[in-house]
């Protein structure tokens, strides 16, 4: 099974380390996008950034993603199965907001603790999730008309 | 005669991603051609398709509160230097921002000049409020939210859907 891990534009060393350590004996095919992270994986392929992240998304069976809204919306739009991990290495903990929203509405699974990585991956592999329907931004013209007025 | 301009203020990461999506939507509208779109971003992570870009350093450090404190006086000086240049070179009509904190001083300055201030709260907030939004709610002429669940925190906000 192919798993892609993305941390977005802010490093998330604790997640990268947990995956490197806890999944080293699994037979998952794992690739990690680690931003400017200081922890460098010993057991899996990794890189800092890519311009073709959508390709990695599309080719994976499961994506483990930091709880950045941009990443989450993009992945759900592609219909991917995702495991959301709030980045608590950051000073502000706002990522729990969207993680809880997506989990409690059954659009994705949020990881509660790094100890549960293996069982969460297995759970998501066989689970079906609700399709997230995004209502697209519709106020652009109103904003421009208001500025013009 | 000075060119009419709209200033787009955006930080890195998700804030930049949202502003890029907004600008892609703006480009589809006819009124787009009437203005020069000027970007103010953090750490040179600009949106290349804008007419002109300026970069300033963020005041808040994501990993250290101490570094944040040290950045503040230096940041304020850079802000005023930029504001002066923009007012001199352009007929600024509005400031639109997607956060985070750099939205505040820029919006305040142009609000004092009587310009229209537009703020779009981030797509990542469903229940909690951001520090920037708490302040911008009081400053903005129009305050947009992308998730309906925020209406109870911001009764005068306008729901606009997701960028």
What does this structure look like?
The complex is a heterodimer of chains A (149) and B (163). Chain A is globular and about 65 Å long. A six-stranded parallel beta sheet of chain A has the order 3-2-1-4-5-6, with helices on both faces. Chain A has helices at 13-22, 53-59, 69-77, 95-104, 117-126, 140-148; strands spanning 2-6, 29-33, 45-47, 62-66, 81-85, 109-110. The longest helix of chain A is centred in the N-terminal third of the chain and has 10 residues, at 13-22. The relative contact order of chain A is 0.16. By secondary structure, chain A is an alpha/beta fold. The mean pLDDT of chain A is 96. Chain A has six helices and six strands. With 163 residues, chain B is an alpha/beta fold. Helix content of chain B is 35%, strand content 23%. Chain B has helices at 14-26, 65-89, 103-112, 131-139, and strands at 3-9, 36-42, 52-56, 90-97, 116-120, 142-145, 158-159. Chain B has a seven-stranded parallel beta sheet, covered by helices on one side. In chain B, helix 4 links the parallel strand 5 and strand 6. The longest helix of chain B has 25 residues, at 65-89. Chain B is globular and about 45 Å long. The N and C termini of chain B lie far apart (34 Å). The mean pLDDT of chain B is 92. The interface between A and B is large, with 32 and 43 residues.
Descriptors:
heterodimer, A: 149 residues, alpha/beta, six-stranded parallel sheet, 37% helix, B: 163 residues, globular
Terminal CA distance of chain B: 34 Å
Main sheet record of chain A: 6 strands, parallel
Strand content of chain A: 15-25%
Number of strands of chain A: 6
Instruction: Indicate the mean pLDDT of chain A.
Output: 96
Q: Show unreliable segments of chain B.
A: none
Number of helices of chain B: 4
* SSE class of chain A: alpha/beta
**How would you characterize the largest beta sheet of chain B?**
7 strands, parallel
Q: What level of helicity do the residues of chain B show?
A: 25-40%
* Principal-axis shape of chain B: globular
Low-pLDDT runs of chain A: none
Largest interface: A-B, 32 and 43 residues
Number of helices of chain A: 6
Question: What oligomeric state best describes the polypeptide chains here?
Answer: heterodimer
N-to-C terminal Cα separation of chain A, in Å?
56 Å
Q: Radius of gyration of chain B over alpha carbons?
A: 15 Å
Kindly report the spatial arrangement of strands forming the biggest sheet of chain B.
3-2-1-4-5-6-7
How many strands of chain B? Answer: 7
Structural class by sheet pairing and helices of chain B: alpha/beta
The strands making up the biggest β-sheet of chain A line up spatially as 3-2-1-4-5-6
